User: Fold these one by one.
Assistant:
Number 1:
Amino acid sequence: MHSPISRRALAIGMALCVLAFAVAACGSDDNNSSSGSSSTSSGAAATKAQKVGVLLPDTKSSVRWESFDRPLLEAAFKSAGVPVTIENAQGDKSTQQQQAEQLITNGAKVLLLVNLDSGSGAAIESNAQSRGVKVIDYDRLTLKGSASYYVSFDNVAVGKLQGQGLVDCLGNSGTPSIAELNGSPTDNNATLFKQGYDSVLKPLYDAGKAKKVADQSVPDWDNQQALTIFEQMLQKTNNKIDGVLAANDGLGNSAISALKARKLKQIPVTGQDATPQGIQNILSGDQCMTVYKAVKKEADAASKLAIALATGKQPEAGLVNGKTNDTAKDVPSVLLKPEAITKDNIKVVFDDGFLKKEDVCTGKYASMCTEAGL
Ligand code: BGC
């Protein structure tokens, strides 16, 4: 049997294995345990180091996925000592399915999924479940899925901030004509955002205090299509649009580009994600507001839940703060609070470490930053 020293080495090795989620790589491997060598065990853990997988959706619907979610998730898992592999499906559902498959084959025990639509997301989740792999819906809920948790923001609240933001920016000037540029019809979040902003805008439409002149969804949140769609909205209304409820900064920028191409004056345009471009558009007055979602908090919460799932433990008390119905069942959820950003509180996104001045206050924006007190 083992000497006390090799027993200790084995114990340390096992502890490292558990830490690295490499239970399968260590505990069930007779060669490693009988050798009693911690370096062999942890070495095995290091080479089999793909234990949490993240499936990001694309690079075109928002810069957030690659610019914020990827580095912040990497940092969150790194500081927890958990190996993570992050993939991006570039908007392709079958690619995402293959990436999920590959991550599972490589030993992932937990997947974080940002689905491309609920159907493909649910298929990924049921396959994972059949292989003993747990899934966390990251940012987007998979309807009729089988995720263990859902980590996101209160997305109806995001929409309410956009609706109220637009109303505030429009002020009390007659009966404004409003155009709604909604997110992807296949993204459950887009439905929730709309629910939020329509809860603010519809009573105004109904009371004749504002007029809805256009209302259209943008497939896959595609900014190029948004430009065409908004162009058509301007065409149809004879340029008579006084405010744009754009569901994120990318769509907002498409509307701004179309307005500029027609040499029309600045009008209130909303957004979401507090992207560098969105913040620049706010500084220049082309955009009126954005919604800041602290992705760091979202990434941290998701990493904690992933670790709890992989180790079979309950997550820390208070982390899971709600349930969200996926139309078949309630999914335990972490729902974080979004914040509206206008020129007046633009500092928030820098003070929070989300954006760096050098990524925003460049070229013609340098003097605007100084003026805004940045
Ligand atoms: C996210 C937004 C993002 C949009 C497009 C939504 O599901 O919540 O932050 O702008 O997708 O990627």
Number 2:
Amino acid sequence: MDRTSLMTNIETNWEKFLDLQISGKIPFFTKNERMYDCLFAQQFNREILEHLFKVAGFLRKLTKNKEGMEFANSLLSHKRAMLYFVQPSTRTFFSFLNACHILGIKTGEIRDTSTSSELKGETPEDSVRTFSSYVDLIIMRHPTPNFVEKTAWLMNKTKRPVPVINGGSGKDQHPTQALLDLYTLYRSFNGEIDGKTIAMVGDLKRGRTVRSLSYLMKNYKNMKLIFISPKEFKMEKDILDFLKKHEITFHETDKFEEGIKQADAVYMTRIQNEHDKSGESGKVDVSRFCFNKEHLNIIKKNAIIMHPLPRRNEIAVEVDDDPRAMYWRQERNGMWARAALISYIFGVDDKLLG
Ligand code: CP
């Protein structure tokens, strides 16, 4: 189904649109057979992922010298972006900000709705529409589930649509985190991701990073996931059903050491207590799910340790100096992967690959 018939079918009704399966929504966020809005991890296929990894790698090398940086800066110097981050963020915000600057995009930001006319009663939808009048791209983090998707949906119905990139929404989706996580795996394993075992540890129930990364596994062969968590924070059924549908092997356990021993990548996460309704995180003993210096001796020699960050005590600081600790590189990879994605959305990626 193309965008026009999809528009007709849903009669521009948001509730009807929201009810569609993701696969049914994707055409609405695609233009000229290219991703236009980046909202769901399920939008990435292997071809796009590996193309973006190449673009990111090229940008990295290109910008090491002044001439290369000036060329990158010229690519989208006629564009402006709004970073609308009304939920706390350090690295997603700054990596997107710097990704825009690498490509020459001028940026504005809203990080607190109390500084916008939302305080005077303007709806978030009208606020976002107002921003879009002045910019060519919206990058958004929002605590409300589906709000980023709704923004893109609204934009696509206006006469001046602008692309929308999801920088994290609700507890469900963080597609560009999944992109940079996979880019980190790609770089760490010299492009050989097929057949790898990934252990995801921590609050799998409410962590949008592990959910989004799980979706990307469908693009690779013979992947195995080990979900390690206390029983209170097990991975949700919708993700397990997705993995079954795509014949991706997974195993659930609460035995931390047994799980991490088998992994090629150990992906640690923090407890997402911001989603607590009545202090439930405090009632769960998560001390068994922390990576300490001793664990360096039991993981595989070539395994890598990842974390979307920020961390609390899930990884001891002494682990940072081990060459297998990848999380600081992982966050820097985010800037390159996001710059590659923005260049792709605006169709200047080919100028980079030549
Ligand atoms: N990984 C991540 O989303 O970090 P921030 O919350 O700091 O953006």
Number 3:
Amino acid sequence: MTLKTIEWKDNAVIMIDQTKLPNILEYVTYTEYNQVADAIRTLVIRGAPAIGVSGAFGLALASLQCKATKKSELISYLENAKKILFETRPTAVNLGWGLDKIMEVANNANTVEEIRTNVIEYAKKMANDDVQINMEMGKNGSKLFNDNDTIMTHCNAGALATVGYGTALGVIRATKDSGKNVKVIATETRPIQQGSRLTAFELKHDGIDVSLIPDTAVGYSMANGLVDKIVVGADRVLRTGHVYNKIGTYQVATMAHQHNVPFYVAAPLSTFDMKSNPEDVIIEQRKGSEVTGIGDKKTAPDGIDVINPAFDMTPPEFITGIITEKGIAKPPFENSIKSFFE
Ligand code: MRU
């Protein structure tokens, strides 16, 4: 069993507090949507699919918190909760996707009781579907990897970034489960170490061979033939094949291009944004203290200016294929991605 990141139990949301990993595996329980919003903002839960489901569960909590007796009152309460949840993080498209789906379910119901029941059931379904979709994606992606491949990944696109199983790490799990021997190289992913704290933790937890490298050893690893293939997750994929993912993904992809290493992205269709253009996408900027220290230890002079974007964009020309639950999109991405939505 892989780790279960988030679930609905007894009218509450339970999630792993990822800020405590890898040292403490602790679960937190929330009964108010504002607590879920704080959890997304402070990275108690993170990763595009996981925050999509968190948003849905947040609205399910809001439907229980609101004591309205008229449908219109409950809908306006949910609209306000949706706004607060939506504003927590701007880049991952799954958050808006999860919130919109739940609002659609709420609007289609007739009474306040029906809204509550349907919204909770649908949010639970989204959580279950997430795991099934990841397994489907894993099966599709596993065909791209060979026995004894060493696979590099960046950030955490695993069970911890989803409800369970993972996107990029789901592909690695499925490859291993298909009987192939695989090794993983995980980047530490500065500044907040999702690679060393989360990817290394969950792969070790599941008994998958993993070596950790500093982000600065990406070029060295490829230049010295240590990497056969790369697979990463995504926070947003545009219809053109532009991929937004954790800061540093662009550097990994550029190095892969330079060294002819196949570079794959694994993302469910809920991560695709078929409307936006690159200039529309907001890149989240995070606080400077994530860069000026490691944990509680200060590693930079006081008052230093910091640039700390959370995500970057990898252009389609550096991407070998995008693995989805519907199949693998290959260049030209405009055509292959479009076919998944027809
Ligand atoms: O800032 P984070 O930790 O939420 O960033 C997560 C990533 O960039 C993941 O690679 C992405 O969400 C894909 S998760 C399946």
Number 4:
Amino acid sequence: MATYREASPGQAAFLQSLLDAGLLLDTGAPGLLGQGAVFDDVREAFTAAVTRASGADPIESMRFPPLTSTFEIEKNGYLASFPHLAGTVYSFEGDDAQALELEARAARHADWSEFQSKTDAVLLPAACYPVYPQIARRGPLPSDGVIVDTGSAWVFRNEPSGDPARMRSFHMREFVRIGDPADVATFRDVWLERTVDLFTRLGLVAESEVASDPFFGRVGRMLAANQREQELKFELVALIGGPEPTAIASFNYHQDHFTQIYEIGLEGGGIAHTGCVAFGIERVTLALFRAHGLDPRAWPAEVRAELWS
Ligand code: AMP
Ligand code: ZN
């Protein structure tokens, strides 16, 4: 079992108020929260506002299921960097007697895990991962590269917590830029500015910070320090449950990490880099409820217009 993180008093109180209002629905498992109609409406409206904010960029849409290939997360380095967050799909392949024993144990909530074995599917940990192998299949990219919109994808990270902003299953919307290094850097700057503007129109005070990924272990601490030093990751942070701001969107520059692994290059032999902007859709939705109250009908007119125009 992954370590459960206790909520701070402010986070616990915010979660309780969301449950009492029917905005979030308790499933009994920490970090796995259902969403009521009003929460869902705001979440969808924010997703649409992001689409409008993407402007005139030549964007290609790709959609993937919330499960992805085990082979790909073995290949792309996820298990090396984030073994503590991964979720794997196991399934039953036994005989009749084993099925009966599994059921007998399950009925008394005893351990039945020995009757299941690993499959070729894992839970998708970030929306952008399935994009790289797809782009690699095309061979060399045109010199101006590509921008891919993953849509709002269900992702999983095994970090159980009492903080409503730290879910195990949530929506992530990403725009992935693959192309010339200068184009990737520009893309990140443009999206950082666009996103600050969007959040400002939504009445959210979001600060930009240099950040790092939660890499695992001792080697991970070095990777994180390096990532910060090179300013490869920025986050926009906002108030959600407690007094400490939480990341609601991230802006990531992977340099040649994925293009090396997947052998992605540009036509004529040019080097390709990748970057992505990732929105934590539930966190933005929570930040809106935190900033404007639990009843969207009473939100400021300009915020409502931005969401439901
Ligand atoms: P990351 O790939 O870690 O930068 O995550 C992208 C975005 O997803 C973050 O900026 C957050 O807004 C959101 N996010 C990350 N982890 C969680 C979580 N456990 N629960 C809810 N949202 C999350
Ligand atoms: Zn990404």
